[in-house]
């Protein structure tokens, strides 16, 4: 099989690319390698992928319609004719969207439109679009200690950030192209993905770095946050099923929550890092931030039923694997692990 994966230098894009390459598939990876976070991490991910002969990288600005059209052109270097297109490229980050909304319009709307146009003409067997749990917005209370799970049937018309609004708009765009041009499109609503090679702007890496350095970590909403932390390998399991056509009924649009289905207090994440590093955290309790939500909770019953999706990784195990990767990647001294 031949796949186009946009955002291939990103966290999820690189992990999915490696999974598909390792089973013998061909991957064309596209990315503009922007500087939202240190491009060195993106280049390091690409170096791992370059070890596979079936990987081809194209540095491409997807917001440019001509550059995107070339990725789909059978007469150009990539050759087009993809079995699947997985669109993971996006401007990430909820809080950054408050200050730089135009970056989100370009990367999350215009670029996606250009990819959809390429799919319209190239007609891949399947298209996968990376959405986000952010589309669900904020829930008023956690209630009953765990909160109500977010289901694909929930109303998603009140996004709490512009980032979330662009992701919801992307789903609507995909729905229209699926109906108009006979595309098979699946949207994946990711819930707090973490693991080795993760993004530096995410809490796990920021907290790990700060705790190791003996610096305080910021806990917004006084730390009273719950997140449905989902390990990267479990996310890739779900994406691989979609790439392979599991759950497909032909042309049309469908959406899936890909999460752990078990929201954890933010304090549990901090405790897991403390255990993995063997060092206590210094906590700085702060007010809620604009655009943030107090909890996320994935109802994954649809993904279980239609895809056979079943997350397997416990938070302590996933965090320990991340810390081991981070220590090796940064070259800092290994910790004296605390006893369980």
From TrEMBL:
GO terms for molecular function: UDP-glucose 4-epimerase activity. This is UDP-glucose 4-epimerase. Its EC number is 5.1.3.2. Keywords: Isomerase, NAD. Residues 4-259 form the NAD-dependent epimerase/dehydratase domain.
